[in-house]
Structures are given as structure tokens and as C-alpha cells.
Amino acid sequence: MQTRKITGLLGSILLILLTVSLVFTTACSSSTTTSATTTKATTSTSATPATTAATTAATTTSTTTTTAAGKAIDLRIAFGSAPVHSLVKNLLEPWAAALAEKTSGRVTATVYAGGALGPDAQQYDMLKTGGADVSIFNPGFTPGRFPLSSIVELPGMNPSIEVGTQIIQSLYDKYPDISKEYDPVKILCIEGQLPILIHTTKKAVRTLEDVKGLTLRVPNETVGKSVTLLGGSPVFMGMTDVYTALERGTIDGALYPYEAVKSFGMDQITKYTTEFALSTIQSCIGMNAETFNKLPEDVQVLITTGDLGRTWLTEKYIYAMSLGQQQGYEKILAKGSDYEIIKLSTEEQAKWNAALGPAVDQWIKDRAAEGKPGQAIADEAQQLLKDLTK
Q1: Angle at which helices 221-230 and 346-356 pack, to 10 degrees?
Q2: Model pTM score
Q3: DSSP 262-329
Q4: 17, CA 20 to 30 Å: which among 36, 81, 261, 381?
Q5: What's the pLDDT tens digit per position in 151-162?
Q6: Which domains does the chain have, with CATH numbers?
Q7: Residue 71 has what pLDDT?
């Protein structure tokens, strides 16, 4: 009997031990599983980008878009002439530097001079198509596109870069027929230019009769018509081609300001300069419209009516060209007796002015034939000229 009691007690104890063992084993198994899961999750979190690329594909696009939107905008500034040109050193590069500074690096600009993005004659078209974001272009280099703007290219209409600039800016602001000529390009600044003179290689031009028979390079159609009135034969070409043309003798001379002497080394090929301000060219600083519209609003204000807008650009433009003009003139003076600057007498100037007299009337007739308000614009320009040269 006693033995049975002991046996039963031992069985109960064994059963209890088995139960405890089973519970303990289950708990350990659960703990191991949890640990393994945690370890696996940790490993996944610290995996290489290649490992997580598939799992983060959905967020990558969103992140990239945000990053692109936050990147600095770099504007491509095209310029057809050489990097040593005064406009590069005293206008374009300072503007680019100031733009980056005033926008805290949000908008930067890179200057591509020397025709790196395209030659002079293509600058306006590049702005239209997006081949450049910003450019200095001469409307006269694209004949027929800016007929009303060519008013300042007529003889006597641009006695100085300051006066010519005030005239064309006033006309641009007042007459939509003029401002529309530049569409769709956004115009940041519009200027007159330095008076252009006759420079020759072999024959000195001292009288009106000396012009007859000469083949002369001209910068635009309007100046070409003036050369024809003087008895010469005009040939249109960009300044980058003038030196070679003179060297080969395909032209006898060229019309350009003293500034080009420095920029293009013209004193090395010409021997005579006749100081009669025959005419000028017109110049603009423009921006691709789509590029402008994508700029932050505060930057649009900055480069139009703000600190780096029209007033700043005009002042720097006039300074740069005037500085280049002085430097070019000094280069010619430095040649001493090897170079001759010819000044026309008062009587001779009167002959030239008389020969050029029909230019304005013909311009008005040409505009009328196109259905454009040439008479009103010519009258306004002449009144401005009178007021500004009192």
C-alpha cells in the first residue's frame, strides 16, 4: 500500500516536470524566432543601395524630381565675337557673377564667346529656338526682320551710343509695332551703338568722290543703302570675316567703330580711317522666352526691372563699348605715321550729308509699302534726336 502511494507521488512529480519542460522549450523557441526576425529586419534596413533599389523604386522618382527642382539653373550666354571683347569682360561676365551672388547660387550663367554656340548672324534665331538662353544680338544681322527698329541705323540718327540708345529705347517702349518685332524673344535691354567709320587698306577716302567704286563691308541692309548713296558697293558680312576679306582683297574697306580695332586687330590690316559717322548698328540683349518663364518670379524681376535689369545692363553696355572704343583708338594712334586718320572739312561733310539726304525719305516709303507706321516713328525719332542733342 505504501509502495503504491510512493509510486503515485513520483508519477505526479514526473508529470509536473514534463509540463514545466514543455513550457520552457516553447518559450525558448518563441524567443529564438523573435530574435531571428529582428535580426533579419535589421539586416534589411542596413542593406546596400543595390539591395534596396527594388523596394524603394516607388520613392526614387519622387526624390529625383524634388532634387531636380532644387538644382541651380545655369543659363547659357551666347556671344558671337571673341572672348577678349570688351562686352565679355565688362558686361557678360560681371552680370553672370552678380546673378549668382544675388540669387544665392539658385541661378548661374556661363558665357560661351567666340561663336561657340553659333555665329553672330544666328544669335537671334538661337534665342528663339532655345539654342542659347541669353545672347547679345544685332537686329540688322537678320535682314527684313526688324524694319522699324532700323530707324536708328539711318544716317545722322545715332551721333553717339548714349543718344542712339535713348532713342531706340523710347521708341521700343512707345510703339508696340517695334516691340512686337522681337517676339517671341524676351528683350532685357535694347541699345544704339557706336558710330561706324570707313576704314580702308590701300586707298584713302578724303572726298565723296573717293568712295565711288569701293567695295565696302557693311553690318546691315540700312547701312548698305547709305553706302550705295555715297557711290560705293556694299557687301554684308559679320566682323569675324572682315579681316580675312581685307587681307584677300575681296573688299577695299569696311565700316565699323574704333572698338572693333581692339577686338579684331583691325589696325594690323587697315591703313586709313575716315572720321565721318556714317551710321551705326543696333544691339539687344535678349533671353529665350521659355527660359525666362521658368525662372523664379523674384529672379524675373531682378533681371528686368531690378538691380540687374535694363538700367544696369544699359550702363554696363555703354561703358564696355566706350572703353573698347577708346582702346581701339589708342591702338591706331600708337602706329604713328604708319596710319592716317582723315577728318573731313566742313564743306566736305556737307557734300556727304547731301548725298545721304534721301535715306530717311526712302526708309519712310519702304515702311509705308509694308503697311507700317514709318512716318510717325521717323518723326518721333527726329524729335528725340533734336531734344537730346540741344
Answers
A1: 120
A2: 0.80
A3: HHH-GGGT--EEEEEEEE---EEEEE-HHHHHHS-HHHHHHTTTSTTSHHHHHHHHHHHHHHHHHHHH
A4: 36
A5: 999 999 999 999
A6: 71-139+161-192+283-320 (3.40.190.170), 196-281+337-388 (3.40.190.170)
A7: 83
